């Protein structure tokens, strides 16, 4: 799937809402250090994620086969095991560590990436006030 067009550009980013539907943010694809990255803009804060997280997270969720808690945490807070957040920084994930690329802002994979996968049709995401989960949608 050519999801890069759907995610958009800096001039025309994809507008998303956090899983609890309490905040809006944008996501777009850009080049940073000669590499394609996801740029997540939350207010004035900019986070960068390795673009491979889209396919890698989707594949992990397919293999997991069931709902998984998101477990969103800042970089400085330890993530709960068996959550999307924990996987997004684990040494045994496909890139061997953090998908977040900006030091000090590498966390929050469980907050900002699940709505993107949902918008792309890769996953279903719950939208409760807290303790949300996601699962892969078989394509």
Question: Can you tell me about this structure?
Answer:
With about 140 residues, this protein is of the alpha+beta class. Helix content is about 25%, strand content about 25%. It contains four helices and seven strands; from the N terminus they run αββββαβααββ. Strands 1-2-3-4 form a four-stranded antiparallel β-sheet. It has a three-stranded antiparallel β-sheet with strand order 5-7-6. Strand 6 and strand 7 (about 135) form a beta hairpin. It is globular and about 35 Å long. About 35% of the residues are buried. The mean pLDDT is about 95.
Strand order of the largest sheet: 1-2-3-4
Structure summary, number of beta strands:
7
How much β-strand is present in the residues?
25-35%
Give me the number of helical elements: 4
Largest beta-sheet details: 4 strands, antiparallel
Distance between the termini: 10 Å
Order of helices and strands: HEEEEHEHHEE
What's the multimeric state?
Answer: single chain
Helix content: 10-25%
- Give me the Rg, rounded: 14 Å
Mean pLDDT: 96
Choose one word for the global shape: globular
Low-confidence stretches: none
Structural class of the secondary elements?
alpha+beta
